[in-house]
Amino acid sequence: MNRIKWIDVAKAIGIFAIYVGHISTTEGVQCMPFVWSFHVALFFLISGFSEAISSKEMGFGRFLVKKIKTLFIPWLTFALVSIAIHFVKMGYSGTELIKGIKKMVLGCIRNNFVPSAGAIWFLTCLFVIQILFFFIKKLKNKWAILGAAAVIYIVALLFFDINAPKLPYNIDTAMYYILYYAIGYISFKTINSVLNAKTLKGKILLVASGVLSFGYCGIKILGKDIFSSLYYVPYLNKLFSVLSTLIIIYAVILLAKILENVEPFQKIGQNTMYLCAGEYVTHTVICYLLMLIGISLTVTSTFAGVIYAVVLLTISYKFVVPILKEITKWVQNIPSYFTVVKNKEIKN
Q1: What is the per-residue burial (b if ≥16 Cβ within 10 Å, else e) of 146-168?
Q2: For residue 268, is it left (φ>0), alpha (ψ between -120 and 50) or beta?
Q3: H-type helices in the chain, by residue range?
Q4: Are 12 and 313 in contact (CB under 8 A)?
């Protein structure tokens, strides 16, 4: 599958938004509510894009093995690394180690794993979504697929609290975000066509939609929202919340299209899975090194938060990601190592 540049850049923007969103300040970061309104949904929607691009059909067994290798094993690796770092950070506390392992066994439930390392919940959640979607996709008709995802989303809203997830492997969160995954899956061809418009009509549509979506983002950043009065209307509030998120995501996609030839952004976007795990590692190491020289890291403003996010992302990409890649590769190759040993024993 050939990589699509604007998708990689959109992922780079998304991971930057996650880094910014996870930074706490003494005065409060003004843009934090804004990034929290779209960054997670963005990644699930983009994952839906990837599902649409991948046209290769396979049986469930082969599909499951592939997802275990590409999602579950990396998640397990990142979880173990996070637990190890937290264990050292907490003064080699056996209690903390056991707590971390127990939480890992449950799939790193969102907001309930090692403090500051909770971002890796995304991988188990995506793992569950992709298993669910394997069967939903068999409906073939795009409206039936969207309808099935919407029903699961509604069930999640009715029976679970999205702000306090409890089910193992983030099943309840997966039921909520599968809607964005399905929207990404069924809308990819249309969005890609709009972004690459050749006709005058298509270009006018692209510019007009861009002006509206960027304008809406500007209003949101300033703390305003044209849908604010509707958020208090029962049932409609969730609909307009999803609509608001989709408008922001569309603006991010347009920005990604504009920046698609910026190679550093492409590279960052191609490594978001490792950057997701690397955030906690990098932040912990930076704070520890600064502490050794008597400096306490404190972010006091929005500008400082954004700058620190850039520094954190850069260091993570340059130094932590390569290490995580090697560790993950080693873990993924463990089964093949045992196969080689077994074959040698058979020959002997």
Answers
A1: bebbeebbeebeeebeeeebeee
A2: alpha
A3: 5-21, 32-36, 39-53, 60-67, 73-89, 94-105, 121-136, 142-159, 171-195, 200-221, 236-258, 263-269, 272-292, 302-315, 321-332, 334-347
A4: no
Residue 1 has pLDDT above 60, yes or no: no
User: Do 40 and 119 form a contact (C-beta atoms < 8 A)?
Assistant: no
Whole-model pTM: value is 0.92
φ/ψ (deg, to 5) at 48:
-65, -40
Average pLDDT, whole number, for the chain? Answer: 89
In the three-class reduction of DSSP (H, G, I as helix; E, B as strand; rest coil), residue 56 is classed as coil
For residues 78 and 272, what is the distance between their CA atoms, to the nearest angstrom? Answer: 13
Of 189-193, 259-263, 283-287, least confident by mean pLDDT is 283-287
Is the separation of the CB atoms in 29 and 23 below 8 Å? yes
Comparing CA positions, the residue from 7, 5, 6, 11 lying closest to residue 271 is: 11
Give the pair of three-digit tokens for residue 107. Answer: 């799939």
Structure-token match 């549509």, residue found: 205
Integer Cα distance of 97 and 87 in angstroms: 6
